[in-house]
From TrEMBL:
PROSITE patterns: BTB
Region (Disordered): 346-377
Name listed for the protein in its UniProt record: BTB/POZ domain containing protein
UniProt cross-references to Pfam families, sorted A to Z: BTB (PF00651)
Signal peptide: none
Stretches assigned to the BTB domain: 172-242
């Protein structure tokens, strides 16, 4: 009866009662919650600790977040809350269907997951490597001289490689002009020169030379060196670089300097420094830095020589190699000179004043000590 009278008498205030309706719930710590600083870390809340709350159903959770952090001595931005889903500042108990006796969990805020890569790099490198083996649209040819000792070798070993062919004097390795020109200005200028030379020539041979650019390779370099270079140009890496010998790496360094492949030069220098530099090879590498303008490798060689001076100077191969580059001894001597003090070290003479027995105050002054002020009132 009382309920009926209340409903009849309060019909006009039903909306206000609904607006003022509260919900009682619990906030539970999922884990230990800490206040962390640069000098110390303090545990503020132990895992599984419950905290009872009473909120209006239409009240935003931002007020709960602020209150909970302040009450427990934590930073609001260090915490995150979830019910059945993560709770946001604009959510309310009513909007997330929170009921009496329900539990909201609180924990340290997780770092957002990094976004997934837009594309698979491994798949890209595989495609580029496959492109290197596909001769259908290749329009550039590297003419690699065949060593005299190998001229009479049977060409059947090359049948499985679609991007190369050979005749008696040259091995032809094919590539794409567009990729070569995109990777280095050397080939861009070279192909422009070839195209200009063919302007005004109407012969069939001239047309073919312009369409299929031929790059004459110095006899210093082998088929293997060109293939390593092309692998890097196409994929920006050399997959089996650890299997390449020191001599071959120095040839690739020479090639990268000749054809202005700066990134390849950097890669080869790094590989030589990290995995090939030792007492027996450092002189050969140091000499190559002069020929191929490899400044990073030069600095590393000097540092290695200075760190292993006794072993290096007693090594026969080092002595023989350096005979070809006597002027390179100057940077080493300069580095050694930097380690020697500029002048003789003079001992400070003791004066009569420093040896005299004076007052405690004068003794402290002589030693350079500062008096500690008394902070007591």
């Amino acid at each position: 009866m009382a309920n009926n009278n209340a409903r009849q008498g309060g019909g006009g205030g039903g909306g206000n009662n609904q607006m003022n309706e509260h919900v009682e719930f619990t906030v539970k710590a999922e884990e230990d919650l800490y206040l962390t600083g640069s000098e110390n870390t303090i545990r503020r809340v132990t895992a599984e600790t419950n905290y009872s709350c009473l909120m209006l159903k239409t009240q935003r959770f931002s007020s709960l977040f602020r209150h909970y952090a302040k009450y427990h001595g934590l930073r609001k931005d260090d915490l995150e809350y979830y019910f059945v889903n993560p709770l946001e500042n604009e959510d309310t108990p009513e909007s997330v269907q929170l009921q009496r006796g329900d539990t909201i969990m609180v924990r340290k805020r997780r770092k957002p997951e990094p976004p997934e890569a837009a594309a698979d790099d491994d798949e890209f490198f595989k495609d580029m490597r496959d492109l290197l083996e596909d001769e259908e649209h290749m329009d550039a040819v590297f003419m690699v001289p065949v060593p005299e000792s190998a001229v009479d070798v049977d060409d059947s070993d090359k049948e499985g490689d679609s991007s190369s062919s050979s005749n008696n004097n040259y091995i032809e390795i094919r590539a794409h002009k567009c990729i070569l020109t995109a990777r280095t200005d050397y080939f861009k200028a070279l192909f422009r020169k070839i195209a200009a030379a063919s302007d005004g020539m109407t012969s069939r041979k001239a047309f073919k030379e312009a369409e299929e650019a031929r790059i004459q390779v110095d006899p210093t370099f082998t088929e293997e060196h060109i293939r390593y270079m092309l692998e890097f140009i196409y994929t920006n890496r050399i997959q089996k670089i650890r299997n390449i010998s020191t001599d071959d790496l120095l040839c690739i360094l020479h090639l990268s300097d000749k054809w202005l492949l700066r990134d390849l030069k950097r890669l080869v220098e790094h590989e030589l420094i990290r995995h090939h530099m030792n007492v027996n090879t450092v002189a050969r590498m140091y000499g190559a830095t002069e020929d191929f303008n490899a400044q990073r490798l030069s600095r590393a060689c000097i540092e290695f020589i200075m760190s292993n001076l006794r072993q290096v100077t007693g090594n026969t191969s080092f002595e023989e190699e350096m005979k070809n580059y006597p002027h390179l001894c100057i940077p080493v001597l300069k580095a050694a000179a930097d380690l020697i003090p500029e002048g003789p070290v003079h001992k400070k003479q003791r004066t009569d004043h420093s040896m005299s027995h004076g007052t405690p105050g004068s003794s402290a002054a002589a030693l350079g000590s500062s008096p500690v002020p008394d902070s007591d009132p």
